[in-house]
Amino acid sequence: MHFQKAGEEMDLVFEIDFQSDEALYTQLCNQIIIGIAKEMVHEGDALPSVRQLADEVGINMHTVNKAYTVLKQEGFVKVDRRKGAVIAVDINRLRAIAQTKHDLTILLAKASCMNVSREEIHALIDEIYEEYGGNGVNGNSIQ
């Protein structure tokens, strides 16, 4: 599979296991994320079109579209009218998630020491989250 990278092409091989219990779109997402992590693709690199990737991998276009949608929601790609799906890791969002996880780890450890149950924690999170309308600042639901 070829990615456009600043005037050159690079190969990222997609290995789809049709016998796996893991959904095909999840396999695509994971392989693209691994490609980002291994620096096989970088910020601004264009992904193949939905049709091209579906044809080359031998899967339905809707499956590829779902993968791209999930990657967009998770902050790994953006959609550009001219280039299509483009690698665009939202570093600020990833940092915010990491910081939130750190903060929650400490809070949950304290709550656990005070015998606060998982159900009570979930109820508190739901209650507090609803105060903010269940959406992030940009109107995007936090997943």
* CATH homologous superfamily label of the largest domain: Winged helix-like DNA-binding domain superfamily/Winged helix DNA-binding domain
Structural class category: mainly alpha
Average pLDDT score: 84
* Distance between the first and last residues' Cα: 30 Å
A few lines on this structure:
By secondary structure, the protein is mostly helical. The protein has helices at residues 24-37, 50-57, 61-73, 91-113, 118-131, and strands at residues 2-5, 8-11, 77-80, 84-87.
Description:
The chain is mainly alpha-helical. It folds into 2 domains: about 90 residues, Orthogonal Bundle (Arc Repressor Mutant, subunit A); about 40 residues. Helices cover about 50% and strands about 10% of the residues. It is built from 5 helices and 4 strands, in the order ββαααββαα. Strands 1-2 form a two-stranded antiparallel sheet. A two-stranded antiparallel sheet has the order 3-4. A hairpin with a 2-residue loop joins β1 and β2. α1 crosses α3 and α2 packs across α3. The two termini are about 30 Å apart.
List the helices and strands and how they pair.
Blueprint: E1 2-5, E2 8-11, H1 24-37, H2 50-57, H3 61-73, E3 77-80, E4 84-87, H4 91-113, H5 118-131
Antiparallel strand pairs: 1-2, 3-4
Helix pairs in contact: 1-3, 2-3
